[in-house]
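Render this sequence as a predicted structure.
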Amino acid sequence: MSFSPLTDEMCILCGERQAALPKDRATLCSECYEKSEALFDEEMRRVELIRTIRGIDVELYDIKHPKSTEEKNHCGQVIIIKAGQGFEVKICLRSDAVDWMTRLADEGSGFESQDTRLDALIGNVMLLIESWGGGPHYMDILYVGKVVSTEGEI
């Protein structure tokens, strides 16, 4: 079976082969696409979402990453709220814990993907939304420089 590219554009990562994937907007050759997908899947496994609170229409997750500079690799939280037919998602990231805009790279081969750590985190959040039945969503991503915890009683 012969492979015929849908475009004459060159791959944006290697610049050596014709772009053929993804099919809806061809920007990568098949080799770079496969490498990018493998890096993305690996990073999704490294970003841990640990559920800490579960309610009827809301869940809270702690975000942990092995590259985090914070104690116990904690680097943020995700709040998912079921709102009617859709979802409200709040992602709060500790700005100094992990560089979320770092591009995914394979240190052995020197290959660098166009995806970032933040893309992998969002991929994990999308899987959570799908597990709740999917639907439209609105997402806020907040970078926080300092975290202050308080307790009290009213």
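Summary. Helices lie at 30-46, 117-131. The mean pLDDT is 89.
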